[in-house]
């Protein structure tokens, strides 16, 4: 009697666990961490800028070198779904007066497509106005 109720439970348990061997079924979000770096803003940082201007463009650095306060590190880590994480490091060196002397980006940043940032449709004054009762036009 007990055997008749255990066998279907075992079969059901084995069939459910057999489906779990399929990989990448669960949705994983894109996870950006650190200083979000865009190629357009990184290109604006040039030698001769002040530290306040760099901080205005890129934000607070992720790390300031503890042995040399004139080196700022901006680190951007992006992991998209099941892909390997991709890290970009942007190093800004200053002189004693706080003016940029050298910038270094370890690898190129991906281009951001601006059309996907805001999905709102903006129509100009030349847009045709339809009546509320003629929605099919």
Automatic annotation (TrEMBL):
Q: Output the Gene Ontology terms for molecular function.
A: protein-macromolecule adaptor activity
Q: Which InterPro entries does the annotation name?
A: BamE (IPR026592), BamE-like (IPR037873), BamE_dom (IPR007450)
Q: Where is the Outer membrane protein assembly factor BamE domain?
A: 34-102
Signal peptide range in chain numbering = 1-20
Locations listed in the record:
Cell outer membrane
Looking at the keywords, is Translocase present?
no
Classify the source by domain of life: Bacteria
Keywords attached to this entry: Cell outer membrane, Lipoprotein, Membrane, Palmitate, Signal
Topology relative to the membrane: Lipid-anchor
* GO cellular component labels: Bam protein complex
Name the major location: membrane
Q: Report the record's Gene Ontology biological process terms.
A: Gram-negative-bacterium-type cell outer membrane assembly; protein insertion into membrane
Presence of keyword Transport: no
What is this protein for, i.e. what is its function? Part of the outer membrane protein assembly complex, which is involved in assembly and insertion of beta-barrel proteins into the outer membrane.
Which family is it part of?
A: Belongs to the BamE family.
Assembly, in brief, is:
Part of the Bam complex.
Q: What is this protein called?
A: Outer membrane protein assembly factor BamE
């Amino acid at each position: 009697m007990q055997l008749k109720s255990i066998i279907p439970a075992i079969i059901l348990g084995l069939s459910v666990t057999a489906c779990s061997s399929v990989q990448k079924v669960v949705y994983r979000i894109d996870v950006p961490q650190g200083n979000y770096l865009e190629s357009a803003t990184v290109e604006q940082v040039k030698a001769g800028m002040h530290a306040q201007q760099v901080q205005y463009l890129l934000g607070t650095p992720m790390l300031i070198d503890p042995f040399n306060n004139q080196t700022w590190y901006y680190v951007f880590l992006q992991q998209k779904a099941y892909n390997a994480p991709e890290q970009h490091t942007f190093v800004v060196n200053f002189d004693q007066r706080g003016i940029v002397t050298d910038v270094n980006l370890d690898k190129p940043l991906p281009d951001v497509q601006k059309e996907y940032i805001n999905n709102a449709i903006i129509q100009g004054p030349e847009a045709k106005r339809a009546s509320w009762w003629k929605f099919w036009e």
